[in-house]
Amino acid sequence: MNTSEEWAEVAFNNRDPVYLQVVRYFKERIATGHSSAGQVIPSRRELGALMKINPNTVQKAYKEMEDQQLIVTEGNLPSRITHDTHVLSQIRAELLGSAVRDFLQTVQKIDIPIEELLLMVERQYKEMGAKHD
Amino acid sequence: MIEVKEIRKRYRRRDVLNGVSFTAAKGEITCLIGTNGAGKSTILKAIMGLTPVSGGTIHIDGKTLIPELYEKISFVPDHLRMPASMKLSEALRFMADFYDSWNEKRADELMKFFRLEHSFKIGSLSKGTAAKFSLVLGLGQDSDYLLLDEPFSGIDLFSREAITEVFTSDLIEHRGVLLTTHEIGDMEHLIDKAVLLKDGVVSQSFQCEEMRSEEGKSVIDVMREVYRA
């Protein structure tokens, strides 16, 4: 399940705090179904080695995810993705929301009526769907 | 904690170190950054008591360097300093004889990890292989602190990756690491703290994650500001 290739492919940027990038990566995995509720996640040490980042950074990321109730750690057991469906659906909404905000910020610079924009989005979305089939 | 306070060093009628102060904590990787000739190696040697300083103090866990501390602190110099005629096995025995803190089991694991043969001769090692063996000698000790002088310099990509792996492994856990480099490259995400040397003093010293979250700057961004100015 937790094979090394599965966790290794992350290109971190140097300017955002690495621990927040790790948190975001986990959220993306949950939103895309790569990690599911209750799944055991690698230990801090394992993840540091897989992602080639400082284990202290992973520690900070896990702490942040515990605070956000994204993962749960009971006693000495390995940490798991939460079962809380409310939290999980929130993640999806949060990621989609920020993607749409980023998109709109870029598009805003170009003066385009919303109807035209929506049509373009719809067309491209269908084209992408066709390619994937 | 390693505490370096106001150390000064004059070398060949030049003030190399002009009052350098910084700390390196246990459980963290601290990176001493500076251009060539900035005095990085001199600082490591001064901490190890291998070169005299003309002023300032150095404390390790609150103590000045006493012989017992050599069991607690290991130094990986930029060149392998073992006699060229020795086999790796002989060099390992040399370390075992010399240090009470030598951990033979760990050294064996490291030899396997880096795919080093005990029968190799020190004198015929390539630069990358010598660097790996230096690391075996340093990490083979159960020391609390590890000083590394340019561990990545002039080493091929795959050797670098193998060495990087060590930095994220339990071999480093709970130890304090102080390493020097003149280029940060792919280590940006490995280090906890950066200490930037310029003109014989510490120009900037910061926790890398704090710098990213508070100012949105990478270590390289700060280096550019310091060294291009």
Q: How are the SSEs placed, and which strands pair?
A:
The complex is a heterodimer of chains A (133) and B (229).
Chain A: H1 4-8, H2 18-31, H3 44-51, H4 55-67, E1 71-72, E2 80-81, H5 85-108, H6 114-132
Antiparallel strand pairs in A: 1-2
Chain B: E1 2-11, E2 14-24, E3 29-33, H1 40-47, E4 55-60, E5 73-76, H2 88-98, H3 104-113, H4 127-139, E6 145-149, H5 157-167, E7 176-181, E8 193-198, E9 201-207, H6 208-215, H7 219-228
Parallel strand pairs in B: 3-7, 3-8, 5-6, 6-7
Antiparallel strand pairs in B: 1-2, 1-4, 8-9
What does this structure look like?
The complex is a heterodimer of chains A (133) and B (229). Chain A has 133 residues and is mostly helical. Chain A has helices at 4-8, 18-31, 44-51, 55-67, 85-108, 114-132, and strands at 71-72, 80-81. Chain A has a single domain, classed as Arc Repressor Mutant, subunit A, CATH 1.10.10. Chain A contains six helices and two strands. Chain A has a two-stranded antiparallel ribbon. In chain A, helix 2 (18-31) packs across helix 4 and helix 3 packs across helix 4. The longest helix of chain A is centred in the last third of the chain and has 24 residues, at 85-108. The model of chain A has no long low-confidence stretch (mean pLDDT 87). Chain B has a single domain (2-78, 144-228), classed as Rossmann fold, CATH 3.40.50. In chain B, 31% of the residues lie in helices and 26% in strands. Chain B has helices spanning 40-47, 88-98, 104-113, 127-139, 157-167, 208-215, 219-228; strands at 2-11, 14-24, 29-33, 55-60, 73-76, 145-149, 176-181, 193-198, 201-207. In chain B, helix 3 runs antiparallel to helix 4. Chain B is globular. Chains A and B meet through helix 2, helix 3 and helix 4 of A and helix 5, helix 6 and helix 7 of B.
